[in-house]
Every structure is written in structure tokens, then in C-alpha cells.
Amino acid sequence: MSVVDNACVLLVDDRPENLLALEAALEPLHQELVSVQSGEAALRELLHRDFACILLDVQMPDMDGFETAELIKGRPRTATIPIIFLTAISKDEWHVFRGYSTGAVDYILKPFDPDVLRSKVSVFIDLWQKGERLKEHERRLREEAVGTVRRESEERYRRLADAMPQIVWATDAHGNATYFNERWFEYTGMPREEADAKAWTRVCHPDDLPAAQERRAETLATGEVFEVEYRFRAADGSYRWHLGRAIPIVGESGEIEVWIGTATDIDDRKRAEEAQQFLLDAGAELASSLDYRKTLAAVARLAVPRIADWCTVDVVEADGSIRELAIEHADPEKVLFARELQERYPPTAEDPAPRAPHAIRSGESELVREITDEMIHSVARDELHLDLIRQIGFRSYMCVPLNARGRVLGSITLIATEESGRVFGERDLHLAEELARRAATAIDNAHLYREAEERAQASRVLATIGDGVFMVDRDGIVRLWNAAAAAIFGVAEGDVLGHQAVDAIPAWQTLAARVPLSRAPGPSIAESVPLEIGGRERWLSISAVDFEDGRVFAFRDLTHERALEEMRQDLVATVSHELRTPLAAIYGSALTLRRTDVDLGEELHDKLLEVIVEESERLSVIVNDLLLASQLDSGNLQVNIVRCDPKELVDAVVESARTHLPNGVRIEVEVDARGRLPQVQADPEQLRQVLANLLDNAVKYSPGGGPVTVRMQRSDSYLRFSVADQGLGIPAVEQRRIFEKFYRLDPQMTGGIGGTGLGLYICRELVRRVDGRIWVESRDGSGSTFFVEIPLARAGDAQAPKRRQPAAA
């Protein structure tokens, strides 16, 4: 039985036994019977399928048969379905009239005759089936007419598409190509038998294919318009830019049935845009630096593969030789291959092939659209050379000179290979020439800038050197006064230039009379002279050179060097004094011990030995300080940084100091009461020496006695040590200088306090080398407090020592 022959009959009755009786009576009709027990259920069934007729019980709870019939007839989709009422109660004429008035075709009273019921229902089934057959026949006629129209339309479309100058294609709903117009075959040169579902992927440029496929997949999934720019390979192997665009065609079902697409040649526009953008990017590179060698190499990298497959830049050196500045290809291994080829077969003057020297000598551009096999044969030296050149796959070539102000500064060579399918033409040559003009301008600007720099270099040197330089013309007027001269004399340039030297330069009469004069060119003799400038004595080493325009004076401020020399002389005197005292004590004690004519006694004998030991230790400390200062200056001091217990270090230093305390001095130790002190990260021996030096100074500078307090307190990521005394104190003006090398508060030792002036300098340098800091707070006559901060040991720091080699201070 066909779908048309199989009808559905809806049975509606609230009693299951009645439905069973109806099903039994209609079963011989062999149609589909649908039974429901309420009007609501009947209406739901009518939403999903069509019925040949409805057998509807009149008496039902909630919604009776009449109400159900009215709703069925009120719907346009179900209004024509025949309804047969069945009832065993409502037999009066009013109910029968109401049944017919609601649209029923019959009103049957129960009990009913099954044969009569089947006969009536079969009539409606026959009518429904005939109606369905008529609908099917009409549908087929429409499809045949539509098919004919569609075929005619498709044929007209194909003829129109074949006549179009752009590529036209069509795909099925899954993106498989089903049609290409004649322009496709003309452009690609593809045989028709090869134009399969994926033919377009074989002519799309490899660099553009992934993006095009990704976009195609997106549009197939979303139904959006497909649009992408890609390059198609032409029959001659070259590539041209096309704008691909496809729109979906939706069928009657609402689903996409076919995609219609076009590929429009936009190569001219695309290449013009790319050329403009390339020139902008190249211009930015050329303007980024005055080092034209660097910028030209960057432009060569920029050119590959945007406008060429190979790019070579050659420049003319100052001696007229030609040097290859850059050679670029997207594959670094091919660059190595090309360099090896050049080394094996260096170019000669007899080579017929176009190359950079030709364009440089002629100053004219060269373009070879197609490098033929004959050209390659003419260049090859032997069979191996020929094979190597063919491996590179040269296809097209152009070389443009770098011209600026009538000079050729170099050339740019651009090469296309078979791999890319690129072929150079006049438009490409114009682009290369514009690039060459910009590059030549950049080179010329760099040359001009270098020349200007060379001319201005002397002025910059004079303006920036630490030596003072000034020039006086033949009339005694100052014509040059550099920054160092202004700083040394304390006179600004504006107050000197154009003025008589005798009026503008302090003590000029004294200075001019004592300076020896030399003739230029030739060596000059310098004279050291003292001058009082700004209320202070300044020592200057000054020389003068006489030339045709006047005299040039060069001078250097030696004030600091003389002060350092005086300090060194003081150091020699101090060290001599410091060494002489223990040496005298040792020498005297040793001579006394050697005497045989005197009975020294055991107590005196032991006392003399004790003097020798103590003074020897004092000598050792002085020598060690001198050696350590030398190591700090040279940067050869090794620092072994480990985790240290600060309390142990302080206790050891204090215990050692207490054994030699003078009368009236006592040492107190205070520790931060907030808990156990954390470990620090330092060199324990050097930190011990720092604390020992500070404690020794505190004792020495407390001649009147009193407490010396050592405190330890945590401060952020540091542990702070402080050593405080109530001794002589340090004047405020001296507090910054006491950490200088060789500096002593009492250089003449009038207070009886000796020393080399190295202790605090050594402390400062040792603390710096563990990233700590040291300073002093004091008031003259009120004691001093020295502070040292050492970094705390972090949780992740290893116990193993870290060696640090600091730079010289």
C-alpha cells in the first residue's frame, strides 16, 4: 500500500470499551486507526497529522463532542475533515440539529451497525485518497514545469557565465566545485578532465591556501557570504591576486543547495597597495637610523618575500671598491648556498650576466623579464656551475643603481625564482627605482651627517672635555670659552666671550705672565700655577700655543690631585709614625731580652715578651689594612657570602675587644627584644672586621671613658647594627668625609689618637660588597653612633657560599 492509499481515522471516546468496539468494527478497512479519550487529545493529534475522517463521541467530560467539533472546524487546516458524531443518549432533534450545525457529516446513534459504520467511513476514506492522488499529480506537474524552467535557466546562466571576463564557479552545499566557466580554463590552462571538486586548491598560492580554506570552512558552517583575497596561478606559471566571493543559494526547504562564486582579478590594485605599503615600511626603516649599512640590510630583509625572492644590496666604498652589504632569501640555508656559490665561482669582468657592477658603472637600471636557459648557459663556467645555478631556479631579474647628487652609491638587485612564479615587469622596475631613490637619499644623508659630525667634532670635544680651553685673539679678546673653563674659573661663557681677557678672566695678568708659549704645530710645555678663584686656592696646569689667529690656552685643575698627593704624604708620615712606635717597642724589648749583664727576672721577662707580641699584632693590623685597601682598589678582593648568625659574630667581636679595654670604658650589647634575630647574608670574616673596626674606633674616641653600646635590630629586609659611644663626636662638616681613604679627624694626632685613615674606608667598601649600607650620626663633643645594615638571609638562600668579585671602588 502506498503512502497515498494509507489513510488515518481518528476515534474519540472517553470510554475505552467504546474505542475497542470502534477499532474492531473498522479493522477490516485496513487503515491506520488513532484512538484518544478526550477532546484535548484529539486536538493535539490534529496538530501533527492529517485524517480522512473523525468519529467523535458527543458525551465526554470537560470538553464534549460539540465543543471539540467547533474547535476543529474553526482551524483552517482541519476545517474540511469529515466528522461523524456517535451518541447513545442525545437522540432528540435539538441535539441532532446541533451536531449537523457544527459541521458534522453524519449523526449515528448507539448501538450502531458495524457494516453501516464501515460503509460510511469507507466513503470518506475513498474521498481522501482521491484528493491526495490529485495533490500528488499536481505536485509532479509543478516539479516537471519547474525542472524545465530551471534547466532552461541554468543553461542561460552557463552561457552568461561563459561570456563573462571574470572567473565564475559553483559548488554544492559542502563546498565541492561542480562548475567552472570558460574564463577559468582560459586563465589556469587546466584541462577540463582535471577540473574536479578541489581543482581550485591546486592553483591557489601555497601561502594563501590555508587562510582561504579556513574562511571557506567558516562560511560553509555559518552560511555567511564567502569573501577572501588570494593568488591564482595562471597558465604561464605566474600568480595574480583575485578577490574570491561566493553567496549561498537557499532552496524551498530553507537549506543551502548551491554556492555561486566569482574570482575577480584585483592584481593591479593589490600590487599598487602592497607597493605603497612596502615603500612606507622601507622609508620607516631607512629613517630609523643614520647607520645606512644597518638600515639597508633591514630593507633587504623587508623586500623578501614581499617584492622579490632574493634581494642583494651592494655599496661603493670610499676607495671605489664594491662591497656586498646584504643578501637575503626567506630560507637561510639558500643564502648560505648562494654565498658558497659566489666563493666557488667569484664574478669576473668578462661575465656576460647582468650584475651589480654593471648598474653601478652605467648608472642605469637593468630588467630581465625572463631568464632563459641560454642565459644560464652563457654564465655557467662548467657543468657543475650550471647545475648549481639551475638549483636556485632564477626566473626574472632587475638591478637598480643608488643615485644621489650625480653619484652612484651602490645598487639593489632583486631576483624572482620559479618557486614563487613571480615575473618582473615595468611596474616592478618602477617600484625598485623608487626604493633605490629613497635608499640613495638615506645613504647621502648619512654621508652628509657624518661630514657635519666630523666638522663639529672638534667643537664638541672642546665643549665636553674635562680640560679647560679658551682662545684669545690678537687683540686680547676671548673668542672661545668651553664648559670646563667656565666651571673651573666660575665665569659663564656669556660673561667672557667678546670681552678683553684682562677684564673677564680672574688673575689674567698673573696667569699670562707665567704660562710658557709654544708655536703650533709642536709640543707644548705646561706650567703648574696657583690661583685664588672664588676665595679658594686652585692649582692649574696650563699651556699655551700661538698660531696666526691668536693664542689657545689649555689647562687642567690639579687641585684635587695636589690634595690627594698631600694626603698620600700625610699617609706616609702617619704610617711611618704608626709603624715606628710598635717597631721601637719590639726592638727595645728584644734588645733588653738579649742582655746578659742584667737579671731581668721572670715577671719582667714575661712582660717584655708580651710587649713584643702585642706590638707585633699592632703591626700586623696596620699591614693588613694597607693590603686590604689595595685589594679593594684593584677589585681583587673575594667575597664569600653565606648565612651568618649576627649574635655569634657580635659576641665574638665584643669578647675580643673586652680583653684590651682601657680603664673607664665598658661595652654593652643590646638585642632587639621582638624575638630571635634572623640570620644575615654576608661574608662572616669581613663582617667581623667591620664590627671590630667600629668598636675599636668607639673605644679609641672615648678617651674619657663611658659606655660603648652595640645594638642589633631588624629593619625591613635588613638587620641593623649600631655602635654608639659618648666620646669626642664628629663635626657635621666632617661626617661625609670620614669614609674617604686616608682621611683622619686628627691628622696631626694632637689628641694622641693615631691611625692610618683606612679603617672606615675599609668598612664602607666591605659593606657595599654585600649590598648593605653604613652611615654615622653624631654631634661634636656628644659622642657618635655608627649604623650598618646587612641584608637578611632569605628562606631560599643556600648554605653554600656565593662568591662575588666586585668592581674596583
What's the total number of strands?
A: 29
Strand content: 15-25%
Low-confidence parts, pLDDT < 50 over ≥5 residues? Answer: none
Shape designation: elongated
Using the CA coordinates, give the radius of gyration: 54 Å
- Mean of residue pLDDT? 80
The major sheet is characterized as: 6 strands, mixed
What would the keywords be for this entry?
23 helices; alpha+beta; 809 residues; 5-stranded parallel sheet
Q: What does this protein look like?
A:
The chain contains 23 helices and 29 strands. With 809 residues, it is α+β, with helices and mostly antiparallel strands. β11 and β12 form a beta hairpin.
Put the structure in a nutshell.
By secondary structure, the chain is α+β, with helices and mostly antiparallel strands. 44% of the residues lie in helices and 24% in strands. The N and C termini lie far apart (109 Å).
Secondary structure topology:
Layout: E1 8-12, H1 16-26, E2 32-36, H2 39-48, E3 53-57, H3 65-74, E4 83-87, H4 93-101, E5 106-109, H5 114-163, E6 167-172, E7 177-180, H6 182-188, H7 199-203, H8 209-222, E8 226-233, E9 239-250, E10 256-265, H9 267-287, H10 292-306, E11 310-316, E12 322-329, H11 332-344, H12 356-362, E13 366-368, H13 373-379, H14 383-392, E14 394-404, E15 407-417, H15 426-464, E16 468-473, E17 478-481, H16 483-489, H17 501-504, H18 508-514, E18 517-519, E19 527-533, E20 536-547, E21 550-557, H19 559-594, H20 601-634, E22 639-644, H21 646-658, E23 665-671, E24 680-682, H22 684-700, E25 706-715, E26 718-724, H23 759-768, E27 773-778, E28 784-791, E29 802-804
Parallel strand pairs: 1-2, 1-3, 3-4, 4-5, 18-20, 23-25
Antiparallel strand pairs: 6-7, 6-10, 8-9, 9-10, 11-12, 11-15, 13-14, 14-15, 16-17, 16-21, 19-20, 20-21, 22-24, 22-29, 25-26, 26-28, 27-28
